[in-house]
Amino acid sequence: AQSVTQLDSHVSVSEGTPVLLRCNYSSSYSPSLFWYVQHPNKGLQLLLKYTSAATLVKGINGFEAEFKKIETSFHLTKPSAHMSDAAEYFCVVIRDDKIIFGKGTRLHILP
Amino acid sequence: SQTIHQWPATLVQPVGSPLSLECTVEGTSNPNLYWYRQAAGRGLQLLFYSVGIGQISSEVPQNLSASRPQDRQFILSSKKLLLSDSGFYLCAWISGRVGEQFFGPGTRLTVL
What we know:
The complex is a heterodimer.
Chain A: E1 3-6, E2 10-14, E3 19-21, E4 23-26, E5 33-38, E6 44-50, E7 56-58, E8 64-68, E9 73-78, E10 87-95, E11 98-101, E12 105-110
Parallel strand pairs in A: 2-12
Antiparallel strand pairs in A: 1-4, 3-9, 5-6, 5-10, 7-8, 8-9, 10-11, 10-12
Chain B: E1 3-7, E2 10-13, E3 19-26, E4 32-38, E5 44-52, E6 55-58, E7 65-70, E8 73-78, E9 87-94, E10 101-103, E11 107-111
């Protein structure tokens, strides 16, 4: 079975500093992994996806994630945080045709 | 092009009243459809999914039910709402191509 674990429920960074949102997955085979962002009172927006092509995936708004099979991780990063990045982020895996969400990480950007 | 519609966008209902949320998709046929709920301060929980007309699977026991009367229509219902039913409800579908998921804009339900 596949699932995802987001290791931090809240992350705070200063504007202009790097962002790291952690996600680990459990899977017996190569998963399809995604990161979504949800701004306050908004729907979900796809940031990026990994589907067994390149292990380093570049997404929108300067975000990227690296699929690491040995570590079973798919952490989301951004070199320099912007105030508009404040939102909730979800790591997602597809399992048995179901979309399985992590519990989410709320990113706070400090001025 | 593939799109997914949900309505209403927001809803305020009294405890004990009925509920009907509708989701429809365009640009695809025989999609797998899903209902998720996001309660305040919590992640997204899968409530129901459907692989075809009349086929509904429930993931968690609750006060809600779902129906799929047509191929591209998925309805979430309740006979009597509880306070704990408040939350943000999302409809979604997965296409046959790996990695293609589509989410509706969501319905914010407040039960008073």
